[in-house]
Amino acid sequence: MLSLLQARRSIRRYTQQRPDQDVIDTLKEAVLRSPSSRGLNPWEFVFVDQPDLLAQLASAKPHGSAFLQQAALGVVVCGDERQTDVWVEDCSIASIILQLAAHAIGLGTCWIQIRNRTHNDTTSAEQYVQRLLHLPEYLRVESIISIGYPDEQKEPHPTSSLEYGKIHLNQY
Ligand SMILES: Cc1cc2nc3c(=O)[nH]c(=O)nc-3n(C[C@H](O)[C@H](O)[C@H](O)COP(=O)(O)O)c2cc1C
């Protein structure tokens, strides 16, 4: 597990290779094994593999989402706000679990923030995604995780860059 965390980086360039069905199945199992508050599992995951839909999702924000167009898969992570007031936490945990599971099997991923981001002057990124995917308003959109086989190599963050000063013993 630690070696996975040591090597993990955000990957935004992907090859043309499509993941096999067993790879997709592994990712589905991983997200569904995420912990959630009170075990409510308030989430819904939209696995998007249609290139035209990925291209439209890539325009969800003016910055920081364009690379989704090249990805083999985008997983839209949504939470049902009617079920819990901590859907943000639950969806964030599911998002990172998905990223780590994908990295563990040789895929590259990047988190695309949707919640609290804007599409344009009149529409939030969340509304844009909700309309595109026919999501009801109560299904809030936290993130899109872009996934594909890496077409870029990134060095791990060196141990010397870790901010150990942010860790405190017993009191701040
Ligand atoms: C909550 C969150 C939101 C993020 N949103 C975006 C995003 O919208 N677009 C993007 O390209 N990267 C996004 N990232 C990736 C970060 O930019 C990246 O994790 C950070 O720069 C550290 O780089 P690393 O993941 O390679 O260690 C996000 C990461 C997190 C945790």
TrEMBL record:
<comment type="similarity">
    <text>Belongs to the nitroreductase family.</text>
</comment>
<keyword id="KW-0288">FMN</keyword>
<keyword id="KW-0560">Oxidoreductase</keyword>
<dbReference type="InterPro" id="IPR029479">
    <property type="entry name" value="Nitroreductase"/>
</dbReference>
<dbReference type="GO" id="GO:0016491">
    <property type="term" value="F:oxidoreductase activity"/>
</dbReference>
<feature type="domain" description="Nitroreductase">
    <location>
        <begin position="6"/>
        <end position="59"/>
    </location>
</feature>
<dbReference type="InterPro" id="IPR000415">
    <property type="entry name" value="Nitroreductase-like"/>
</dbReference>
<dbReference type="Pfam" id="PF00881">
    <property type="entry name" value="Nitroreductase"/>
</dbReference>
<keyword id="KW-0285">Flavoprotein</keyword>
<protein>
    <submittedName>
        <fullName>NAD(P)H-dependent dehydrogenase/reductase</fullName>
    </submittedName>
</protein>
<feature type="domain" description="Nitroreductase">
    <location>
        <begin position="63"/>
        <end position="149"/>
    </location>
</feature>
